[in-house]
Amino acid sequence: MNPAFEVNFDGLIGPSHNYGGLSDGNLASARNAGDVSNPREAAVQGLEKMRTLVRAGLVQGVLPPLARPNFDLLAAAGFLGADAQIIEAAARTAPRLLKAAYSASSMWTANAATVSPSADTSDGRLHLTAANLSTMLHRSIEHPDTTATLISIFAGEDHFAVHGALPAHGDFADEGAANHVRLCNEQGAPGVELFVYGRDDGESTAGFPARQTRLASESVARSHELDLVRVVFARQARRAIEAGAFHNDVVCVGALDTLFFHEFAFEDTAGTLDALRRSAQGLFDLKPVMVPDAEVPLADAISSYLFNSQLLQLPGEDRLVLFAPGETQDTASTRAYCERLVTRNGPIGRVEYVDVRQSMRNGGGPACLRLRVVMTEDQLASCHSGVLLDEERIDELQACVRATYRDRLSPADLADPAFADECRIAREALLGILELDALT
What does pTM read for this prediction? Predict the structure, then answer.
């Protein structure tokens, strides 16, 4: 077994972070639609979360924001001419489309890709498949640029296999790692990969959309060359989706041998746990931590984002640490549950609260903001070092954000053609710091 590390690649929140209300089924996105956002504060908050993990002794990476607005989308919709003409025409006749073109949703990198470490794959390489995010227009435009970013960072084919997105059809709807959990004994040891889906291919559902299909999950597992004996496919509870759990990571998170989840996370909880135990046989003993609805009502779990937390193994601590959003502390039921949780002799020993309120108001907590990538020492040495953070680089990024981002942005401001130039200048400066100028 090769020593390995879980590296969190957080999304650097972009300068066009706004409350456009584009995400059907995301209650926070709908609730705050049209409000004034603070892109500068959002990016600084995200970077401070990254700093916290660097100081804790973890390896921390960052993914840059994508170019916004996405002029390819606007051109495909028939808006032609100079950039300013395109923006003015779209703002006048298709303002929702302009909001989609400006969406900063790539900051939630849990949706960027699904990742399988080399310990699980038959060819011994780290596999990443960019998510097509086909259910939502504003997210469906991300995957070509996300794929290019991943190729720039994970470039060596001896160590990495970066796969493009699945076909952009409803039967292949794929939301990335937000519906995927890897469980193991140690990061460098073989593990069990849990894929959670909301519907079968060809199946239609009423109400909020079920964004992940079983066919998409199965396709990713096959392309990653996983041993299907060590793979579990589980259906997310329709009850959770209708309550606002648009991704499984709103009601479930896992790390090492521990699965932390709400009572109503899965359609068949007993069957899911039984399948996980059978797949883990000979590798590790599963430690399920189920939160009863009687202690934390599903509505509170979703509004507080208790499960959209980072569950981490920190150096020097023998139990896992839950990095939860401040909203979990502010909600009476989840705060009380966390206080009881850490007093028990279970696998989670501490809860730490982090401030990501700008992201939370748009429907993304600490877990949404990161893509977990388990890497060996050789893989870590082979990836692009410019995106691996220390405090000095975090300081540089924050200084750039403070110099180039607005501290006030409303959806109406997107109609100003000058704002497109601001976004370009800010992104190019950030890419320079990360030594990713080829992505400009």
Answer: 0.95
pLDDT in the model for residue 356: 86
Strands, E assignment, 265-341: 287-291, 310-312, 320-325
Give the sheet arrangement for strand 191-197, strand by strand: 180-184, 191-197, 231-235
Both structure tokens of 176: 């990335």
> Catalytic annotation on 368?
yes
State the amino acid at position 257 in one-letter form.
D
pLDDT at 103: 94
Partners of 348 in beta bridges:
320
Residue 247 a catalytic site member: yes
Which residues does the chain have with pLDDT short of 50? none
Q: CA-CA distance, 288 to 273, in Å (whole number)?
A: 8
DSSP, collapsed to helix, strand or coil, labels residue 215 as helix
Q: Which of these is catalytic: 138, 143, 180, 247?
A: 247
Tokens (6 digits) for 72: 């390819």
pLDDT digits (tens, 9 = 90+) for 76-100: 999 999 999 999 999 999 999 999 9
Catalytic site residue from 184, 252, 338, 368: 368
Which DSSP helix (H) or strand (E) runs through 376? strand 370-376
Q: Is 338 tagged catalytic? A: no
Beta carbons within 10 angstroms of residue 158's beta carbon: 9
Copy the structure tokens of residue 302.
């979703």
Annotated catalytic residue, options 41, 142, 175, 263: 175
